[in-house]
């Protein structure tokens, strides 16, 4: 079972992904450090893989783009999903 992530951890995760792109040396170590709270490199990678799977499903129309307006989530997650592109 996957460990849960708080909103704050997700926010730090998203900010770290924006800061450390795929060409950054030791990217996952840096992202894990930025997330903090004891998240391991493996947990961060798995969390990213889930995000990518969700993005693929959204882009293929299998699930709608999340609408966080009016919820406690920031629009940052929605922006990340819109701006993230698979290569």
From TrEMBL:
Gene3D superfamilies: Homeodomain-like. Keywords: Nucleus, Transcription, Transcription regulation. One of its GO terms (molecular function) is DNA-binding transcription factor activity. SUPFAM superfamilies: Homeodomain-like. It holds the Pfam family Myb_DNA-binding. The keyword Transcription applies. CDD domains: SANT. GO terms for cellular component: nucleus. InterPro entries: Homeodomain-like_sf (IPR009057), RADIALIS-like (IPR044636), SANT/Myb (IPR001005), SANT_dom (IPR017884). Residues 1-52 form the Myb-like domain. Transmembrane segments: none annotated. Residues 1-56 form the SANT domain. It is found in: Nucleus. It comes from the Eukaryota. Residues 63-87 are annotated as: Disordered. This is Uncharacterized protein.
